[in-house]
Design goal:
By secondary structure, the chain is α+β, with helices and mostly antiparallel strands. It has two domains: 80 residues, Glutaredoxin (3-Layer(aba) Sandwich); 114 residues, Glutathione S-transferase Yfyf (Class Pi), Chain A, domain 2, CATH 1.20.1050. Helices cover 51% and strands 8% of the residues. The chain is built from nine helices and four strands. Helix 1 runs parallel beside helix 3, helix 4 crosses helix 7 and helix 7 packs across helix 8. The structure holds glutathione.
Length: 224
C-alpha cells in the first residue's frame, strides 16, 4: 500500500521548558529532517484544558498530526517518524543493538518515576542544588549503567549511546538536561554524554525556546 507523505506535519506540545515527552518526539522529527509546525499548549492552565480536546485523544501531549491523522504518545510518535520519514534509519542496523536500544527506550518510557518526579525537566535549571532520596539516586545509577553498557556495545565512534544517533538518544535527552540542571556527581562517561547533548543544535534550539517562555509551573520548579 502506498504511504503518501503528509502535506502538514504538526506537533502538539506542552511547554518547551518542562515537557520532556514533547522534546523526545520533536528530536525524532528533527533527526528525520522534519521541521514540524509546533502548537505549544501551556500546561497546567485553563487554556490547556480548554484546547487539548481539539488535539489529543488522551488529553496529553505530545500528539503528532500528519494531515488529519493523529499519532499520540512519544513512543508511538518515534516509531511513526522512523517508519514514515526515515526509512527505518533511526534505529541501529544491528538487530542485537536495536533490541537493546528498544529495551532502554521502553525502560525510560515506563520507569524512573523517582527521577522524573523529584528532578523535573526544566530548561532554565543549571546545576541547582537539590535533595534526592534513595530512589532517585538509584534511578540515576541505573541510567549511568545503561549508558555505560550501550557505549561498550557501540561499534561506531560517534558520541551517541550506540555511536550513531538513534531514537533511544531522544528518550534520554531530557535526562541529560536533568543531569545538567541539578548538581550531582556523575561518572566521566555520563558527563561526556550529557555534554554531547548540550552541544547538539536541535536540543539547544528547543532549550532556548523553553527558556524564553514566560510560563512558570511552580510544582515543576525544584532545587535552588
Ligand atoms: N506516555 C505519554 C506521557 C505524556 C505525558 O504525560 N505528557 C504530559 C506532559 S510531558 C502531559 O500531557 N501533561 C498534561 C496533563 O496531564 O494535564 C508519552 O510518552 O507521550
Amino acid at each position: 500500500m502506498s504511504d503518501p507523505q503528509p502535506s502538514v506535519v504538526r506537533l502538539i506540545c506542552g511547554n518547551q521548558n518542562y515537557s520532556s515527552w514533547s522534546l523526545r518526539a520533536w528530536l525524532c522529527l528533527r533527526r528525520a529532517g522534519i521541521d514540524p509546525q509546533l502548537v505549544v499548549l501551556p500546561m497546567d492552565t485553563p487554556e490547556f484544558y480548554e484546547r487539548i480536546g481539539e488535539y489529543s485523544p488522551t488529553g496529553r501531549v505530545p500528539v503528532l498530526w500528519l494531515d488529519d491523522e493523529r499519532v499520540w504518545d512519544s513512543l508511538a510518535i518515534a516509531e511513526a517518524v522512523n517508519d514514515r520519514f526515515a526509512n527505518g534509519s533511526l534505529w541501529p542496523c544491528d538487530p542485537v543493538l536495536r533490541s537493546r536500544a528498544r529495551a532502554m527506550m521502553a525502560e525510560m518510557h515506563s520507569g524512573f518515576a523517582a527521577l522524573r518526579h523529584q528532578l523535573p525537566m526544566n530548561c532554565r535549571a543549571h546545576q541547582r542544588q537539590i535533595e534526592m532520596d534513595a530512589a532517585a539516586l538509584a534511578d540515576i545509577a541505573r541510567i549511568c549503567t545503561l549508558w555505560q553498557e550501550a557505549r561498550a556495545m557501540a561499534p561506531a565512534q560517534g558520541p551517541w549511546l550506540f555511536g550513531d544517533w538513534s531514537i533511544v538518544d531522544a528518550f534520554f535527552a531530557p535526562v541529560a538536561l536533568r543531569f545538567d540542571g541539578y548538581a550531582m556527581d556523575l561518572p566521566e562517561l555520563a558527563t561526556q554524554y550529557v555534554n554531547a547533548w548540550l552541544a547538539d543544535a536541535d536540543l539547544r534550539a528547543w532549550r532556548d525556546a523553553g527558556i524564553a517562555e514566560s510560563w512558570v509551573i511552580h510544582h515543576e520548579e525544584a532545587g535552588v
